[in-house]
Amino acid sequence: MPREHILIVDDEKLIRWSMKQKLESWKYQVAEAENLRDAQASLQQELPDLVILDIKLPDGSGIDFLKRTRESHPGLPVIMITAFGVVDLAVQALKLGAYDFIEKPINLEKLENVIRNALETNRLKTQVALVSKSNKTRFGLENIVGKSKAIREVLELIKRLAQAGPSTLLVQGESGTGKDLVSRALHYESLRRDNPFIALNCAAIPETLIETELFGYEKGAFTDAKTMKKGIFEMADGGTVFLDEISEMHINMQPKFLRVLEDQTFRRVGGVKDISVNVQVVASTNRNLEQSVREGKFREDLFYRLSVIPIQIPPLRERKEDIPLLVDHFFQHYKIQFRRNVKGITPEGLKLLTNYSWPGNVRELKNAIERAMILVDQDMIDVDQLPIRIADPSAAGPAPRSSENPHVQLPPEGAALDDIERELIQQALQHADGNKTLASKLLKISRDTLRYKVKKHNLE
Hints:
Elements: E1 5-9, H1 13-25, E2 29-33, H2 36-45, E3 50-54, E4 56-57, E5 60-61, H3 62-72, E6 78-82, H4 87-95, E7 100-103, H5 108-139, H6 149-164, E8 168-172, H7 179-188, E9 197-201, H8 207-215, E10 216-217, E11 229-230, H9 232-235, E12 240-244, H10 254-263, E13 265-266, E14 275-276, E15 280-285, H11 289-294, H12 300-306, E16 310-312, H13 323-338, E17 344-345, H14 347-355, H15 361-375, E18 380-381, H16 388-391, H17 417-431, H18 436-442, H19 447-456
């Protein structure tokens, strides 16, 4: 590992010599400058990892040099050296961005600790910047593939909202359309990108635990609360909380959630003081929230608070022109992942993929390409490697629902929605021989949602 490079700028030769001896004994590489002109030349020749800078120098003030350095190299840590008792200049230097200051005569033990801390802080900042850049590449707008008018309108709306930075957003769309991807793009395209993005599936958390997941709890709040625990709103301060399947949040929890949206404050479970945060909330749902409001399962005031500017993601069947682009996108991804020397997909295979109705949307398409890339044993993916429901036109997905031709007929005397839901879950589990992953696909819901509903209806 290369040694870290430190530049000492001081006009006193003895001080420079003694610091250099110590720094080299601490395994640092050291350069010296006795005035600002030499310091500037040294910076241009090789940028150091840290600068130790005297405030008073023969050809100018170290404060002025600090200002210029912060402008040209904002991430470079600078430690100021000042005469004993000259606190006002040291405070001014700190306000201008100096990491810390050391008074003369120099305490070498303190100097070693300050240097170590400054370099460690700079390393962490660099790592955070690299992670942020990597996340923006992975989750930015360029990962939302498509050229259709519908998807271009979604991308334009994401750009505007990411720049405006509203505190609350609602993402709507069928299962598999990419709500998670859109939610991450909203975060990583915004000024919050360097702060946390924390996701929670509301359907996967039991009603009794969701409050502690969101807001945390104090030590002793309940029997098992041995220590204090922060909730996701506290951990995501400055960043974004993504609440997937918001329609599954219990009605009793919704007023507390609304309060966080309104004034960005909450209390931990068992707490007595308000905690203020600065958090953007992105909620998503594949359900009709207005219908949930009419059924009394979702608060009307919360619905209006969430749906100021809703983002509606179109289903894949409504943007068929994007299918070839998505196929190529997933093909290239799995070609690298599986290290397969496959050239592409046959025209017949691509035609079937384009004509299929995709009830599972982009997620289903991605899974189909992954399957094909695993099974293919030739140069091109062909019809034989596609799932039977796609390869056999008679097994194509169902047509979009309409009120004129409903899938389920409501009896004249009416029916309890919970009873219908329970019956459909039972049927799905029977069709799938108890396999919850397959049953969740039959019901077009996530496996976490199915597990929650199985427990809700006592179907274990």
